[in-house]
Amino acid sequence: MTIQTIPDIEVVELDDVATLVGRDLGTSDWIVIDQVMIDAFAQVTGDDQWIHVDVERATREQGGTVAHGFLLLSLLPVLTNRLPFRFAGVGRRVNYGFDRVRFTSFVRAGARVRLHQSIDRVEPKAGGTAITRHCVVEVEGAEKPALVADWIGVLYR
């Protein structure tokens, strides 16, 4: 197996990816989910439900606004890029979808989240290698994660 370490980032060759099944890929750094991000997501998606964008009402009725579950899901790529792990020998990546997605707790505006990720499965797919990553997005100070998902991507040379 070819593993190269670059200042705190582990790099594994695509040919060796099957050896990673069951392995923890690490934890990302924290990112803040602020109201500006929530509002921008609401504008792009048209999901402007008051629990996300009406700060006054949400504060009065539920203690503040909350992020969209799909906003958290859409942050998986950026959070994955903040893991101390990379694949080498990849020409392109294709998002194949999800086997399971659960939004398990709210994320209030201003909260910090981070990603824990591990490899669950590796299998050949459409001339590439399908990798199923188990993703857990935790909220700083919360008992339960905000998001649990099994995310499938296909990597090609």
Give a quick summary of the entry.
The chain has about 160 residues and is an alpha+beta fold.
Could you list the spans in which at least 5 consecutive residues all have pLDDT below 50?
1-6
- Secondary-structure class: alpha+beta
Number of helices: 5
Going by CATH, the architecture would be Roll
Strand portion, in percent? 35-45%
> What is the overall silhouette?
elongated
Share of helix, binned = 10-25%
Largest sheet: 6 strands, antiparallel
Task: Provide keyphrases for this structure.
Thiol Ester Dehydrase, Chain A; elongated; three-stranded mixed β-sheet; alpha+beta; six-stranded antiparallel β-sheet; single chain; 157 residues
